[in-house]
Amino acid sequence: MNNKILLSDEISDIVYEPHIKRKDTLPFIFHIDDIGCRAMANLHENIELLYIMEGEGRVLLGDRSVSARPGRIVAVNSFVAHSASTESGLRYACLIVDTRFLLENGINISALRLHEVIDDSEAAARFSEIIEEYSREKSFTEADIRASVLRLLLHLCRNHSVPSERRSSPDTAAFFSVCTAIEFVKENFSSRITLDAVAASAGLTKYHFLRKFKRITRLTVLEYINTVRCQHARQLLVGGASVKDAAIRSGFENFSHFSSVFKKYTGVLPSEVKNQG
């Protein structure tokens, strides 16, 4: 299932992934990708780790490009637009870690910036353990995965990170406030949300907050709320919910407005997703 949401026209070559579906016992997104040319660029608030398994290519991180080769880990820090490309084929494992999981385990990843290129045999071995754990079907697999991810992140934070530049920047507080606002939206998107309420959750004045939010996320607050709502609605539709039920449960009060917004952000009508399910 494609959970990526199209952004506004000015940055339509990038998609935003709000990652609203969180399983408390396994707060990660993990998949293995094979690409033959170029993957669409995307960005999100959680950190992402790419472990290159086969082939060679490039990973674009913002305005920088790094090489991808077997055994290398490429780290994508928060709110960095990224995509992978190759001329001969590329296979990699992708691990996205919920920031709350790290905070609950004493790792404030927002205060750190992981090195983008990591050539470390121990880190590679720990990532391989995670890949192996995901392929197993046995007792306590979820506990094993959580422990393996935590060991990997501890190793990377201790050996392959620097203090975030934001810590010494005047925008430090704004960055953390935006992250707080994102959590507020994820927890309240199914009900009516005002811009004043989102700004208040961030501890900033409304207009100051709106400017900071757009600069950091590349979205307006309304665009972000719609991405979260549309992703949730799509998950409900694929799971068998009616179009009307998906709209109501995702915070849309007007049915016709839901259809037009869903079409704008996903490229298809809600009924089309429902029929595909």
Topology:
Blueprint: E1 5-6, E2 14-16, E3 28-35, E4 41-43, E5 47-55, E6 57-61, E7 64-68, E8 73-76, E9 82-85, E10 90-97, H1 99-104, E11 112-114, E12 117-118, H2 121-135, H3 141-159, E13 161-163, H4 172-188, H5 195-202, H6 206-217, H7 221-238, H8 243-249, H9 255-266, H10 270-276
Parallel strand pairs: 2-4
Antiparallel strand pairs: 1-2, 3-10, 5-8, 5-10, 6-7, 6-9, 8-12, 11-13
Helix pairs in contact: 2-3, 4-5, 4-6, 5-6, 7-8, 7-10
First-residue to last-residue Cα separation: 10 Å
Mean pLDDT: 86
CATH class group of the largest domain: Mainly Beta
Quickly give the structural class: alpha+beta
Number of strands: 13
> What are the secondary-structure elements, in order, as H or E?
EEEEEEEEEEHEEHHEHHHHHHH
Helicity range: 40-55%
Strand order of the largest sheet: 3-10-5-8-12
From the alpha carbons, calculate the radius of gyration and give it in angstroms: 19 Å
Q: Which regions contain 5 or more consecutive residues with pLDDT less than 50?
A: 1-12, 166-170
Backbone shape = globular
Number of domains: 2
Indicate the proportion of strand residues: 15-25%
Q: How many DSSP H or I helices? A: 10
Q: Please, what is the oligomeric state?
A: single chain
The biggest beta sheet is recorded as: 5 strands, antiparallel
CATH architecture of the largest domain: Sandwich
CATH topology value of the largest domain: Jelly Rolls
